[in-house]
Amino acid sequence: MIHVADVKDLQYLTIHKVGNAGKDEPLVFSKSPIDLSNEEIGKLLLNYFIHPFANNSEYYHLFHSIELPLNEIFVCASRIFEDKSTFQEQSIHIAQHLYDNSMHPKIKGGELYLAYFDKCLIDGEEVEAIGIFKSETRETYLKVYLHNENYEVNYEDGINISKLDKGCLIFNIEKEDGYRISIIDAQSKQNEAVYWKDDFLKVKRREDTYLQTENYVDLCSAFINKKLTEDFDVSRADQIDLLNKSANYFKEKEKFDFDEFTEEVILQPAVIESFKEFKQQFETNHEMSLPDSFDISSQAFKKQAKIFKSILKLDKNFHVYIHGRADMIEKGFDDATGLNFYKLFFKEEA
Question: Which InterPro entries match (predicted)?
Fold first, then answer.
């Protein structure tokens, strides 16, 4: 995890204007880094650049399908880490590379900030870092001021320093794997926004406990919600019970063990065998290998916990939230009305 309070040394910063190349918008380079002697401006910039990464434990690596040295950002970052005096020159190459990948008609132009941090604390290790940030959204601010003993109002167009549109931090560690990368993309849900990760940066997920936890949560959810009902006659209440047990396992355990999980959560031998087969197919479909044992990332589980939905939806009339004790739920069919029913047993109302 990135410790925001320990990112203090913003040594270099340069700004370039990167428009949409597909619309023939301009690309404008700064001639030199900006003056950082004003401490208050420096603090505001640090907050704008670094604060959004505070709770981000999801990491990436730069990559290329042929070989890593063909990744443009990897080359530029490596040159800066090797010789800081090349910072401005490499920042221009990075801006040009972004411009070349800004062809989609919905991509917004904006200011591109290139920063060099001399000291960043990440997972207890102090390293150098390069920051690449882009502001795409401008806002209007009211300016209230006193003039000739009367208050007057005007407006200015500017950037909200509480909202970083796009950003990445490249840490000077794990170079052989493509450096460790942290990414922010406020527009990632829009199809055109994938250019930041896929076209400009060219990154892949870092193989770590965060990714392993995320993959297993997806695996368990997919099995319970899809495969389980195909192979076995189970009610929605039984599905929810298994979802709750799975969620509790990830919440309470520090380490995941495949055999332990199947014995404590899934229980039934036939269902365990189905789960093992589903895991193999899941790995094939997603071109990945899931380890049988790893440390559980609490941050990854918290982000993915919503997948384990424990809601029993009955037509459009009722939503029943089930948190445990499937043995206190009984399903039946009423011949007189021709309707299904659930019987809930409880000791007292909350």
Answer: Nucleoid_associated_NdpA
